Amino acid sequence: MAFRSRPSHLPLENDSSSRFLPSIVALMVALLTFSIVGLAVLHDTVGRWATQIDGSLTIQVPPTGLSQLEPKQREAALEERVQTIIAAVSGQPGVARIAELSPDKMVELLEPWLGPNEMISDLPIPRIIEITPSSGFDFNVLEATVSRTAPEAVLDDHRIWLERISDVAVSVEMALLALIGVLFAATTLSVFFATRSGLSIHKSIIELLHLIGAPDGYIAGQFARHTMRLAFLGSLIGIAIALPVSLLIGYLGLRAGWQIPATLHLPLFFILVLIVPVAISSVAWLTAKRTVLKVLRRML
Description:
Blueprint: H1 17-53, E1 57-61, H2 71-90, E2 95-100, H3 103-114, H4 117-121, E3 127-133, H5 139-149, E4 154-157, H6 158-201, H7 203-211, H8 216-255, H9 267-299
Antiparallel strand pairs: 1-3, 1-4, 2-3
Helix pairs in contact: 1-6, 1-8, 1-9, 2-5, 6-9, 8-9
């Protein structure tokens, strides 16, 4: 087994790297785990928004020119505008469903922001018409119909701002992927410098081992196994720190009304997180072995 202690002619356990390398690896793995969790949450959230919004349009019908009327008269005139738009649009090809968002629903949505129903009823709130398009839908025809029927109405195509949000989300995802790469690179550099430090400390013992016939592969193997054990230990510590913190944040998010991303429910996600210690240990083993072989060819 790779992680079982084997007899060694090098006192590597007494190196300074044995003290600081696990701590550095633990920090890198914790940050790496947070990045993976954040990437999964971001990807799932954007996908959920796209599912909820994609394929739906809204028409805002503001009470333009009706502010001088009494509330009841204003509502009647606004309702007439709404029904005129619905009648003009409902016969258009590609419109699967068209319906007005009820005033009670609008009041329910605005009450947390604007106060009780009595206050909202006195405000000139626009009416909202929801449209669900189907095959054969033409946005330009709809825009022309709405503009001709009610010039004051505003047609909102959610795809425009959804594309902007998606662009921002993709940029953040790319940044997280770059951060993951940087963390792997930083871990590799830490292993490299720790290995070089160990080689400098044990230079005299290495020269003696060479004199009695020890090959470079034997010496490199001892460094590689020692470094892999340290990296694996640090990885476990990092996972032990990151997962409870992530679960705590998720619990607090649930209490605040957040939804747990579906990606985090998949066993594949947890397998991916648990693979991190194996990946870090493998990178440490390879980095240490190649570093030792390269330095030994120059030293001896």
